[in-house]
Write a structure and sequence with these properties.
The chain is an all-alpha fold. 62% of the residues lie in helices and 2% in strands. InterPro entries: Homeodomain-like_sf (IPR009057), HTH-type_TetR-like_transc_reg (IPR050109), HTH_TetR (IPR001647), Repressor_TetR_C (IPR004111), Tet_transcr_reg_TetR-rel_C_sf (IPR036271).
Length: 262
């Protein structure tokens, strides 16, 4: 699987695109073009065909225009990828009031991010250690920080907590994305695959040789009706991470924050 990297475009041009500080008006005699329209078409290509299929030529084909006409608006693929990322990050819901305190606020952030990856699986193919510094990326970071503001953490701890949750979701969602892709490519759901393989596994798995694998695997298979439950594992792991953060918060002078009152 090919990995793309954000932040590889020209900094000045990328920031101009991200913040829309400069945009050329389309010429007469051809379909109207804009940065927004080009970016939306690029996202549609990546969603439908994967990031490997994304190119300026493929986006132009989807829009029904010549490839060179895109460069009037977007300098290249690096800058385009940055704007694509910033655009999809703007899809996450950010309600002002999430009842229940900081745990519920972080849970909301994590679940929104999980859903975003499922809508746009190509996000897993983009390394964002150098993130696009666009309005949606910054607004998202601001919202995540608000989830843990005022509960006794230092500024660096606040940043570390939101980074921890974001990194966890990134890792946990991969199995869900892969399961969805496997179902699409094989025409067989995880449940159908399990039903086809489980009888043979029961015959092959010797509980005397693998007592724990047999016992736990049987219990899990009966519960999930599949080899795994990515969403259930995600929720379990998220709760354990929040438990750990709660221990940290409880060491601070204002321990009432752990009760969800803030």
């Amino acid at each position: 699987m090919t990995t793309e990297y954000s932040g590889t475009g020209d900094p000045a041009r990328s920031l101009a695109l991200l913040w829309r500080t400069r945009e050329r008006t389309s010429r007469k005699g051809r379909p109207d073009l804009s940065v927004d329209r080009i970016v939306r078409a690029a996202i549609e290509v990546a969603d439908a065909e994967g990031l490997a299929a994304l190119s300026m030529r493929r986006v132009a084909e989807r829009l029904g225009v010549g490839t060179m006409s895109l460069y009037t608006y977007v300098p290249g693929k690096g800058e385009l990828l940055d704007v694509m990322l910033d655009t999809v990050y703007g899809e996450t819901a950010r309600p002002d009031d999430v009842p229940g305190g900081w745990r519920e606020r972080l849970t909301h952030v994590a679940r929104e991010t999980w859903a975003l990856y499922l809508r746009h699986p190509w996000l897993l193919q983009v390394a964002t250690t150098r993130p696009p510094l666009g309005p949606n990326v910054i607004a998202r970071y601001e919202y995540e920080l608000r989830a843990v503001d005022g509960i006794g953490l230092t500024d660096l701890e606040m940043d570390a907590v939101v980074t921890l949750v974001s990194g966890y979701v990134h890792g946990a969602v991969r199995s869900a994305v892969e399961a969805a892709q496997a179902a699409a490519r094989t025409g067989m759901t995880e449940q159908q695959w399990w039903q086809a393989h489980a009888p043979y596994l029961e015959k092959a798995l010797d509980p005397r040789r693998y007592p724990l694998a047999a016992r736990v695997g049987t219990a899990a298979g009966q519960e999930y009706q599949a080899a795994a439950d990515p969403h259930g594992a995600f929720e379990f792991g998220l709760a354990r991470i929040l438990d750990g953060i709660e221990v940290l918060v409880a060491t601070r002078p204002d321990a009432t924050a752990t009760t969800g009152e803030r």
